[in-house]
Input
Amino acid sequence: MAISIVSSPVEYISSAFSSAARSFLTVCEEIGRARAAKVLYHELSCMSDEELGEHGLKRNDISRTVYSKVYDVR
Output
């Protein structure tokens, strides 16, 4: 004997909206991270080599530093 589970149209629509909302929030979070990375990269790249050195950075460390700070990579 086979058992079939039928969900109502309301449950299906609710699930679809919920999934779409989660996807939308994920996209918004990623856009926010990208904007933060852009701002931080710009701030660091405008610093002189001496200013970067005061923060313990070299010019070739900027990309890696931005990525690790914005995306919390350790």
User: Anything to note?
Assistant: The chain has a mean pLDDT of 89. The first helix runs from residue 9 to 45.
